[in-house]
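Researcher: Following up on the earlier apo prediction. This time include the ligand. It's magnesium ion, with the SMILES given after the sequence.
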Amino acid sequence: MPRITSFASTKGGVGKTSLVMALATELRRREKTVLLLDCDPNRHLAEWARRRRDSGVAVMEEITETNVRQTVQENAPRYDYTLIDLAGFGNLTMLYAFSVSDGVLIPTQQSFMDIKETVRTFKVVADSVGVLKHTPASSVVIVRTQAAIESRVDRHARSLLSEHGVPTFQTELIERALLKEMTYTGHGPGEVNPDSNADLNVRALADEFVSFLAEASPNPLVARG
Ligand SMILES: Nc1ncnc2c1ncn2[C@@H]1O[C@H](COP(=O)(O)OP(=O)(O)OP(=O)(O)O)[C@@H](O)[C@H]1O
Ligand SMILES: [Mg+2]
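Model: Understood. Below is the ligand-bound prediction.
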């Protein structure tokens, strides 16, 4: 079944676009088709998708509040996964994107300030989706962590999130050179260096992403065949 996910964060530069790219490359390895919606006027994601030269990854840019719903409704049913890379937070594009999504992922970094703000973001998302016809499932993903081992800062971050009842992916996206390289080449860790630590990380994240969506109820505003 085609699935639609929005990627949002209050802060800029958290790692939304990198998360979208990493998931897209791994979904392609699983022979899934991917539609990327680039809501950022800087169009980094759209340019990246073109560098990738992959007929299984379509990208639509200049997505704004005026066209996001229609774009999803008309195009998402033709792809296995639609990933919506949002530009800012608290704007109408974001709300309209949520209104046609099955899931919302909020990437966060790990400091106290980051987590505090992410908790606030999550609550705004939870509130705003209350006014929509369909409430997408939402979860936080901790990104740009330093190592695979569970550190003290990680425990702090997770306990603050859980104190506030914020659901969080078990898998984190670790800071990796292969993920920076991906932004140049269009190819993910699994395509460049299969079975590397970065590949294993992205695969685990994609597994969790797929199960998150499997549990999320389909948004009735998007027709599926
Ligand atoms: N897991 C990672 N490993 C290495 N570098 C990363 C990782 N995640 C993000 N980065 C780097 O962090 C920077 C910001 O990432 P990115 O552009 O994905 O964030 P963003 O949330 O989309 O930013 P914006 O709000 O400007 O759209 C980039 O330099 C990117 O290469
Ligand atoms: Mg971005």
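Model: The chain has one domain: 3-215.
Researcher: Noted. I'll compare it with the apo version next.
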